[in-house]
Every structure is written in C-alpha cells, then in structure tokens.
Amino acid sequence: MARIVGALSTSHVPSIGGAIARGEQQSPYWKPFFDAFNPVHAWLEEVKPDVAVVIYNDHGLNFFLDKMPTFAVGAAEHYDNADEGWGIPVLPSFKGDPKLSWHIIENLIHDEFDITMCQEFLVDHAFTLPIKLMYPNAGATWPLKTVPITINSVQHPLPSAARCWKLGQAIGKAIESYPEDLKVVVVGTGGLSHQLDGTRAGYINKDFDLLCLEKIVSDPVALTKYTNREIIELAGSQGVELMTWIAMRGALQGRVSKVSSTYHVPISNTGGAVLLLANEPVALPLAAE
Ligand code: DHB
Ligand code: FE
Question: Domain 3-280's class?
C-alpha cells in the first residue's frame, strides 16, 4: 500500500527562483532561508519518497478569473513549467503519475469533493520552486513523480480553512488506500503572511506566522476555526495561501512529529517559513470478532 512518509511546507516566492539563478543561496539575505533545506535534504536522502503530492495555489497560469475551480487535481503524464510573468528561469518538466492521480480523483469525488480533473496542467513557481528547493542538484529529470492539487486563492469566494482541512483528510485517505507500495511526501506551498497589493502591501505578521507554525504541528484544528476574513486580516490578502498548509496537514493520518522548522522574515514580501514533518503509520486496532 502507499504510505505518506512525511510532509513539507514552504513559502514559494518567485524571487527564490531568481536567487537560485544568480547563485545567491549563501548571500546574507537568502542564506537563512536556503539553509532551512539542509535538514530537508538529509531527510529526503534517507527516506527517498517516490511521489510528491503537491498542494498549492495556481497564480493565474492554468486558471484565471473567467474560470476558477475551487479545487483541481492534475492527471497528466507530465507537467511543464511556465510562470505568470515573473521572468524566472523555466525548470525541466515534471513527471506525473496519472494512475495515482485518478485514484485520488475517484476517491475525492466519492468523498463529495467536486474537484476539477485536469489532463493538461501547467505548473507555476508555487509548484516548481519547492521541488527545486528539495532537489537543488537535480538535472534534466527529477527524482520523483508528482501530482499537483490546487486550491483557489485568487478569486473570491475562497474555500474555508475548515473545508481545506477536510480536503486534506480526504487526500490523505485516498493516498493511503492506493494499492501500490509507494512512499509519498505531501508538499504544501504558500504563505505565510503576505500582502502584495493595496494599502497594506508589504504587510507581514510575524506573531501570527509563528503561531501558525506551532499550531500546524500540534493543534491544526485550531487553525480551521479562523474565518477567511480573519485570516486575511491577520495574514494579509495573500496570506490565505495558509490553506495549502492546512490541507497538507490534514493529509497526515499517522503519528506526526516535527523534523525541522524555520522562520525567517522577510523573503521578498513574505514571512518565509519551512516546516518538515514525519508521519509514522499508526496501527489500526484489530477488528472485534
Ligand atoms: C510573493 C509571494 C508569493 O506567494 C507569490 O506568489 C508572489 C510573490 C512575494 O513575496 O513577493
Ligand atoms: Fe504565492
């Protein structure tokens, strides 16, 4: 059976791609953020996941204001990188796992999540940069297959934190019922607090980010109590990308432990956070005779 071995969540600002292209990973500005991936690299080297299920938010590349699915799942053979205009270098294509994608899609629909299923899917910085950060030395091919899952964070009304938590639980259940012996890492990308537009442009709330980093490990249900309006007030209008972290955490069905956690502010306009969680299966009680 497939097993969720752990989960990584990270901020995904496009300027990370610029810093990689210019080789600035060890510059004083970027070092704390890039160094947060050292324990992630050691963990990946040890655990060697086969597939990443990446929960993120599309920024207007696949879906725009005219047609905006609340939740979408990719079911393609491969996912090509494009971006929505930040001019960062394009990364090599990502291999899909259509069989696993369709299994997740079937299970989500069965669990009453009316997602959009996509047999063509372009991926933007929110998908590509976290994988590049996980595997900085990968060449033309990536060491694992991928399944992209998007949550609308662009066009209101957005799904609630409670709904994203339940989506994550359904994704986790779907993965763990997949009959192939795969090691799956769930990746949640976005956040933490940031606002890119309007009178509060540049807004970051360190206290709230640190609270989220703690609660996502020990008491994620507490985060599902916030309304979207409260999240926007506390974390900024783009801080709603926190939903991807909540869904990521919902997918973890087992005994969850923190491997590493880093917060460094700012990267670009964002509270930069990186969190790695391990997930150990919990033995199911034997059914009563
Ligand atoms: C920034 C952050 C994002 O999440 C994003 O998608 C684009 C830009 C930023 O901080 O600049
Ligand atoms: Fe973003």
Answer: alpha beta
Q: Identify the active-site residue in 59, 103, 125, 264.
A: 125
End-to-end CA gap in the chain: 24
Q: Is 41 a catalytic residue?
A: no
What would the pLDDT profile of 79-129 be if each residue is shown by its tens digit? 999 987 888 999 999 999 999 999 999 999 999 999 999 999 999 999 999
Task: Count how many residues are written for the chain.
Answer: 289
Whether ligand 1 lies within 6 angstroms of the CB of 103 is answered as no
Per-residue model confidence (pLDDT) at position 284: 64
pLDDT value of position 289: 46
DSSP for 121-178? Answer: -EE-HHHHHHHHHH-TT--SS-SSEEEEEEE--SSSSPPPHHHHHHHHHHHHHHHHT-
Is pTM beyond 0.90? Reply is: yes
DSSP type of residue 240: G
Q: Which residue's C-alpha comes closest to atom 10 of ligand 1?
A: 269
How many whole angstroms from 271 Cα to the centroid of ligand 1? 10
The domain ranges of the chain are 3-280
